[in-house]
Design a protein that fits this description.
alpha/beta; ten-stranded mixed beta sheet; two-stranded antiparallel ribbon; 15 helices; 12 strands; about 35% helix; about 15% strand
Length: about 425
């Protein structure tokens, strides 16, 4: 087994007019991450620096994971009580999947150091927002459902290797302005030779805080995310804790991030998921009517590899994400329309039958470590599709549907599913 490191240190954050440079050390081994912004305001104001420090704290987990150190030293980094709570939760729960895959219990991690943080209240326009945009059905629906009285700009994050083509093509269809950030991850993390621990980190939480940084720099009063109700559903329980691949998209994470931002810049700024109370099926139903996006959007993760030469140029038709998106769109679009989108048909592929069983909660393993809906919601979608005449020739759909007993029904999932922090002025 690999040995855990002893100490992970926050060495310092450099802030320039248009960039953030985070410095870290793992048992003395240095790491640096650089984020460069375009089409935002100056980053060097006190309020922007305050929220940039929050990003810096969470971004450190990308390097902490290399050694899973037993101690975390904030050193001179400003860390208020709410920020400390966010970092602790992000380490324990945001690295939950990482812990399972590496068989590491991080509950023994000790946090030390940290300087006193001070609130700096900016002047903000609550009717101007940044909408984090990833090019999938979720962010497309948010962009189109947000109140027309809101001045909306997209926020797109790209790696140093270049823009993601399907994301850019989908963003172009919106016709909205784009503010950008380019992440330059320390090359040591891209060239892992097997000596380091590796695994999933809460990247959506990091992107959320980059969006907050960009928004406040230009006087915008909110960041709009696109995380559904089911993002809070865990994959499994492990050593007494729920493990959720989508922790950084969850209701709990949203609240922790909002609290830490409030601690840094006051209560006027809003960061919330527009889709929080909505099911994946509700999103799919709305998206089914947005036909202008159907042949440009992409939700297959293989299109978003960090290295350009590893990116898929189309839907792979094989992964859990492709299968899930096919499943939730099938109640609302014809098979011909779906084939035109995917250039494949995962739902009718017998090779995907075991994956489908897992999606609906019948598999021998837990819900996939992917951004997919909870098993009950997938079971509802399957029950609907299996009863549709145009899918009657796909016998395994009906066979699997016979075995599921979903707790909710189809119409129920098209209504509000839970609490939301979305302010009234974001709604139509």
């Amino acid at each position: 087994m690999r040995e855990r490191a002893e100490i992970f240190s926050y060495v310092g954050l450099d802030v320039t007019r248009d960039s953030l440079v985070g410095h870290y050390e793992l048992d003395g081994r240095p790491f640096t991450e650089v984020v460069t912004f375009q089409d935002v305001g100056h980053l060097t104001t006190a309020s922007v620096t305050s929220v940039a420090q929050l990003w810096y704290l969470l971004a450190g987990l990308s390097y902490y994971k290399a050694g899973a150190a037993r101690r975390v030293d904030f050193a001179a980094t400003p860390v208020g009580p709410r920020a400390r709570s966010l970092v602790r939760a992000a380490l324990l729960d945001g690295l939950g999947e990482f812990s399972v895959r590496n068989d590491l219990d991080l509950s023994d991690v000790v946090f030390e150091g940290g300087a006193t943080s001070e609130r700096s209240t900016p002047v903000l326009d609550v009717h101007q927002v940044l909408t984090a945009f990833g090019g999938g059905i979720d962010s497309v629906v948010t962009v189109n459902e947000l109140s027309h009285h809101i001045d909306q700009t997209l926020f797109v994050v790209s790696p140093l290797s270049g823009h993601f083509t399907p994301l850019e093509e989908t963003a172009r269809v919106t016709g909205l302005r784009i503010a950008r950030a380019t992440r330059s991850i320390d090359p040591q993390m891209l060239d892992n030779d097997g000596d380091d621990f590796n695994g999933h980190v809460p990247v959506t939480a990091m992107i959320t805080l980059l969006a907050v940084t960009a928004a406040i720099s230009s006087g915008r009063g909110g960041v709009v995310m696109s995380n559904e109700h089911s993002a809070s559903s865990p994959n499994l329980a492990w050593r007494g804790r729920d493990v959720n691949h989508q922790w950084s998209k969850s209701w709990i994470a949203e609240g922790l991030i909002a609290d830490a931002v409030s601690e840094a810049v006051g209560d006027d700024f809003v960061v919330a998921s527009f889709l929080r109370e909505r099911s994946e099926l509700w999103v799919a139903e709305v998206f089914s009517r947005l036909t202008q996006y159907h042949h440009v959007f992409r939700s297959c993760n293989r299109a978003f590899a960090q290295l350009r030469d590893q990116r898929a140029t189309n839907w792979c038709g094989e992964c859990d994400k492709c299968l899930f998106i096919n499943l939730i769109l099938a109640p609302f679009l014809s098979r011909d329309d779906l084939r035109a989108i995917f250039h494949a048909e995962p739902l009718s592929d017998p090779a995907r039958a075991d994956q489908l069983r897992t999606l609906v909660g019948l598999g021998t393993t837990h819900k996939p470590f992917e951004c997919v809906g909870d098993p009950d919601e997938s079971a509802v979608a399957l029950a609907k599709v299996s009863a549709m005449r145009e899918w009657s020739d796909v016998t395994h759909l009906a066979e699997i549907a016979e075995l599921v007993r979903p707790e909710r029904d189809f119409d129920e999932l098209l209504t509000a599913q839970g609490p939301s922090r979305v302010p009234a002025h974001w709604l139509r």
